[in-house]
Amino acid sequence: MCAKRLGEATISLDNAPGVLASASCAGKKEGEGPLARYFDYIATDARCGEKSWEKAESALLRRCFELCCGRAGLAPEALDCVVSGDLLNQCAGSAYALRESGAPYLGLYGACSTMSEGLAVASMLIDGGGMGNVAVCTSSHFCSAERQFRYPLEYGSLRAPTSQWTVTGAGAVILSRGAPPPYVNLITVGRIVDMGVTDASDMGAAMAPAAADTLARHFADTGRDFADYDAVITGDLGVTGSDILRELLGMDGYAPDARYFDCGAVIFDPKRQGVCSGGSGCGCSASVFAGYVLGNMRSGRWKRVLFAATGALMSPTTSAQGESIPGICHAVALENGRD
Amino acid sequence: MCAKRLGEATISLDNAPGVLASASCAGKKEGEGPLARYFDYIATDARCGEKSWEKAESALLRRCFELCCGRAGLAPEALDCVVSGDLLNQCAGSAYALRESGAPYLGLYGACSTMSEGLAVASMLIDGGGMGNVAVCTSSHFCSAERQFRYPLEYGSLRAPTSQWTVTGAGAVILSRGAPPPYVNLITVGRIVDMGVTDASDMGAAMAPAAADTLARHFADTGRDFADYDAVITGDLGVTGSDILRELLGMDGYAPDARYFDCGAVIFDPKRQGVCSGGSGCGCSASVFAGYVLGNMRSGRWKRVLFAATGALMSPTTSAQGESIPGICHAVALENGRD
Questions:
Q1: What is the pLDDT of residue A2?
Q2: What span, in angstroms and rounded, lies between the C-alpha atoms of B208 and B56?
Q3: What number of H helices and E strands is found in chain B?
Q4: Complex-level ipTM beyond the 0.95 threshold
């Protein structure tokens, strides 16, 4: 056996993979935000030279993936696997970005939790011994998401204060056996939590209970708390959702302090950039993780980080049919040493 | 290490999990087809008592999952993980079917290859030691797929001779460490193959090259051929697509004989049931695998089977934008003994 169970839901890896390379790409608006210097590439227009926003999303993800492969010194077809997914119907953003890669491909759907879901799956596949180098990718695009999930952009519809701005961005990480730290040491796979929120303009509220469930389980399984991490990071709860998470975890006896932040709450400047409750989308947590988070781990500022991307598993059809919004959150603990 | 590599792309599991339980559910039309006696439950109407076809698909998958858990003697929340996905936008069929399960959940998107993708992922997670019992689920529904991918049913649009009939069906399998055979011994994760087919009414042709690629890689990695298996099974190439696969593999020097069949070509009676080239959808290969295939393995008729579900990774949006259709195929070898 390579991995073992800690408590109810957490898995401790014996041959924890390291991060061989990463790349973070973003759109123009994200490139004007507070994390600008952590992006490896900033697109200058929403089309990325393509004829549609969907093709633009694939082009941005492809660029991010190729940049990451280049840094790893690996040809794409030398990878043992690519795991990827996105928000577009049938995860077409990923399939078209990666169809020429020549690498074995496992498609995921975790909505905006895809980056941590992918890190969890890739880490376990490497730890198990069957794979050596696995890339984890995901993306989102404001324009392709807006017209698929909400209204045609041309409507210029008003936004609710709790609504979030889908990030145009992509993240790619290559995990490898034998790569340098940070290592992915611990994994807590989340369960679906649906507390009955039906407002598709308040995704933070829909996802916060799933984030609270996964973080509480991770802490219970490991005996850790916020104080044991240099940073505890959720995906895209936004300002509203991360306030709800603080409250929920507070009721459970945990005390989210300044070590806690949400990628959606930090990728934009809410006051200056008009994004209401903050950023969202697979590309939000992915680009923040692959740039800002890994950057701070490599510099030594942070030694131990818990990354817990969050996803809302509804579709426009289920919302139209009156269904509430199920949330999910997967957590991975990265450390500059092995456990 | 638990798993090891065979050749370029095949993984041999050391602690290969067995099949603890399975369940296969189908719609009325499928229940009138040649495999009727292998389904554990046959729905009597397309709505399954729900108000919409999407909710009906979730209800059918939920019933299948619960039936499988019951046979395994496991409460859903006792599972270490459920891996599931489907064709509905944002994989909503799975999320809503499983949101009350209380089990950790990993969403997949492999289009109609989901059952073999799920078996591959679940087997590797169990083999790695971190998980003991993992359920693999997927579903499709004729009516929800038809209106999402093609035309509103009320149009009564004409069907092309190469078109396939999306199966209303679901499959669930629980893999476990220490469970009895068949064991999942070998895994070949497929890569995306796109040969430029743009006709969304000819998905078999779009997916056949991916199936040929994965089967040829599996055979090359393992030194096996069709003659080494009692059955080699593709997912949903249909009559047209499986003929193309025979031709492609023939050019590669392999000889698909009577041991080869396609789930889409056997689930319906094409002459009597008016399904053109046969069945398709995640539920096609899943219900055939969980019922007919595992049934024949349990009875001892087949000792060694290669199951290779196939998927088309396009979306209606990419087709409308003139893109060709990328295909994928993942193969898992099941045997009544360990390798």
A1: 82
A2: 30
A3: 11, 15
A4: yes
Sequence letter at residue B123: S
Q: How confident is the model at residue B1 (pLDDT cuts 50, 70, 90)?
A: low
pLDDT per position as a tens digit, B199-213: 999 999 999 999 999
**B127 contacts A130? CB cut-off 8 A:** yes
Task: Work out the average pLDDT over B48-73.
Answer: 97
Residue linked to tokens 């800690």 = A6
Predicted local confidence at residue A339, as pLDDT = 65
- Taking CA atoms, what residue in B is nearest to A144? B317
Question: Is the separation of the CB atoms in A256 and A246 below 8 Å?
Answer: yes
- Nearest C-alpha of chain A: how many angstroms from B336? 22
Per-residue pLDDT for A232 more than 70? yes
The alpha carbon of residue A4 is apart from the nearest alpha carbon of chain B, in Å, by 5
Q: Where are the beta strands (DSSP E) in chain B?
A: 3-6, 10-13, 18-26, 41-42, 81-86, 105-107, 133-140, 165-166, 169-176, 183-188, 231-234, 260-262, 279-280, 304-312, 327-335
- Strand A327-335 relative to strand A304-312: parallel, antiparallel, unpaired? antiparallel
* Residue B138: φ, ψ to 5°: -165, 165
What's the pLDDT score for residue A337?
84
Cβ contact (<8 Å) for A194 and B99? yes
Chain B residues with CB-CB distance to A55 below 8 A: 321
In Å, how far are A192, A205, A208, A278, B119 from B98, measured between CA atoms?
A: 8, 20, 19, 29, 17
pLDDT at B154: 86
Question: Least CB-CB distance to A128: which of B107, B128, B190?
Answer: B128
